[in-house]
Write a structure and sequence with these properties.
heterotrimer, A mainly alpha (87), B mainly alpha (111), C mainly alpha (165), B: 111 residues, mainly alpha, 4 helices, 80% helix, C: 165 residues, three-stranded antiparallel β-sheet, 3 strands, 59% helix
Chain lengths: 87, 111, 165
Amino acid sequence: MSNTFLIIIFALVGGGLFLAFLRLIIGEKTTDRAVALDTTTLITTGFLVLVAFLQGRSMLLDVALVYSVLSFLGVLAIARYLDGGLK
Amino acid sequence: MSFLDILAHVFTGLGALVLFASGLGVFRMPDVFNKMHAGTKATTLGSILFLLGIGLFEPTWMPKLLLVVLFIVLTNPVSSHALARAAHNDASEKPDNLIIDDLADNKGGDK
Amino acid sequence: MKRKPAVVSTTVVLFGIWLSLTLSTDIQEIVLGFVVSLITAVATHGALTGNLFRLLTPAKFLATIGYVFFFLGQMVKANIDVFFRIFRPVIPIKPGIVKAKLTLKSERAKAILANSITLTPGTITIDIIKDEIFVHWVFLPAGDVHAETQIMVDSFAGRLEKIFE
């Protein structure tokens, strides 16, 4: 991976992460925040895999896997709560 | 540069671009359901391309990355459905720009 | 034993997941993984994967492969659509929720249909109530929206019917 390519990749993924995180802070409505949280966690998973590749540490792949599982469960819990609990 | 290397660059670059588009979409779209269009479709394909691109750079990681990709493809739409239902059921969360809304008519008919 | 195929297919899937998680060629780990997969499959068969060998007739296998490629093509189209929508100065939207009839019977087929519609151009599934599916359009199609939605849903449901009957 050349240096220029790496900078472009970091700028794109970091920019997406920043914009989604901004929406998570601004919000407006609770469900907007939940959607933004979902997007943020998925982009972070991609970021973790990129960092794992750059540092050559395969352990971070397990972190990414568990992180995506936990984010799925977290978003489901938020959606259930907004829907008024388990019916 | 070998063919595999070029393919890996293309996959990773496109994946990063789509991930950026998903962040921008979630930031710019006006209401919950339209945010979901960007937040679900773009993150799914973006993650697939990005993770497979990294997998092509480092082929020994491919099986584990495929597992992450499979998990994302299976679970991402599910969390989006759960959120969409919650957003539609709550009157204060529901956007008011819908031109037609069969689901609200359906609920009104039940009562 | 009637449930044998379900146990075997669950073991195969679990063992595949074990192998891709550990990424190890050590004989001890592989044997341990196989034993653990077998015990888990006997305890939970049916609940996790069901009987995958039902899908292994040649016609259904071909239909599954065809569906996967159809779905991937639709997903790429969906992303191009989203991409060109959000980079406009004013985002063109005309949202609405439209219902359509479902002919599929199996619950698993309905779940796959809902997930597929969410990941394809311009539409996400909001809810399924009995045999009606509710779809959100980011830009309502011109003409009769109910007929257009029904055509879109049927293009997926027809392919899934071949797989699940």
